[in-house]
């Protein structure tokens, strides 16, 4: 069976952040491609509708100014043509403007979900062509000597048309073709060089307006894409928030269920466990007489040791649960860190001696007291020393250091010459019930709760936990307690033996 790693655990819990982002991007691309396949312009349907909506808004808002412009041209054209002819031309232009304005308003008033975009695009295209043909009727002024005026009018009409139809490129091109042909036909009314030059410049201006409309179309597309991406991000954030709220709710329910389970099981397990420990100790010590079979005494020892192991495991699980739930209360008091470490080293000395291990102590006995929980500190040091003794091979060495930190705090360092931990398994050993692969192969059995409990207790004291290890080079754990927990020694109070004269006089009085 392969060794369990952090990556395997993460994959078992769900996709990683990078994998989730990749899946989200793929889903977005698939959705975009599907919408493009159902569109006639190769864009997403939302973009198709937005472009047509922009066009309809431009056309609906430009109706009155265009009518005024047509009326001004018709009034000026009376210098070359009869007023009834100019009025008839203005009426035709007015009808086409009214047609396009009406179509645009109908489009804007229709439900976006039921709009046939292809049909409306064709309607707008036909309306643009008809309106351009009505503007192109100004070429009749060429035969009456007003060709220059007609040329200027056609250029202005081209500029207005291409700008208004910029969001529908095909409509802009279709609308510009009649105007360009009308502009070119004016050259027949003025074959002179200056007339041809003016017509050429007008044609160039129309091409410029067409290019400018393409730039406006690109800018509009960029704005639409930016807004679509922003909306997508907002939607994803809302979905992520909803998922987070649901996950938090489930986590709270699971944590409550876990707390209830541990509270129930601790009672249910401790009750029979006390009986097992008590009776096994009676049988182990042969209180009621010597066992007939010597194996029974060995069995009693095994039962008692297994019961103690189970009791320690239950206590560790409960401690870790209280730490994770934030319900572990510190009983703080002045504590001499060096004395706590010395007591723990003495307790673990027999186990180290049985494995022929050597302790190297570098403890500063002059350290001032700490304001901390003595039981928690003792558990921290015992867990670290227990791991060091457990994972160090027979004949190995263990270094124990206690001293000052650079910031004025105090630290405890435990280093061993054991097998070490690979870098990719450091996260595993710090997780609940996590154990490194080399430790599993070379060390005794354990619950995998020692380091998580140490880390939790250190963080409750506001300290820092640092674990460094390399395979075949050993492991070092450094626990740092902050300077705010170091108790400063108060200076001695100086008492003057001779009271002041004024004080003596006051007492005499």
TrEMBL record:
The keyword Transferase applies. The keyword Signal does not apply. Residues 230-257 form a coiled coil. GO terms for molecular function: phosphorelay sensor kinase activity. Signal peptide: none annotated. Keywords: Coiled coil, Kinase, Membrane, Phosphoprotein, Transferase, Transmembrane, Transmembrane helix, Two-component regulatory system. The chain crosses the membrane at residues 60-80, 86-103, 124-141, 170-189, 195-217. Its EC number is 2.7.13.3. It catalyses: ATP + protein L-histidine = ADP + protein N-phospho-L-histidine. Residues 264-485 form the Histidine kinase domain. Residues 1-20 are annotated as: Disordered. It comes from the Bacteria. PANTHER family: SENSOR HISTIDINE KINASE RCSC, TWO-COMPONENT HISTIDINE KINASE. This is histidine kinase. It comes from Methylobacterium phyllostachyos.
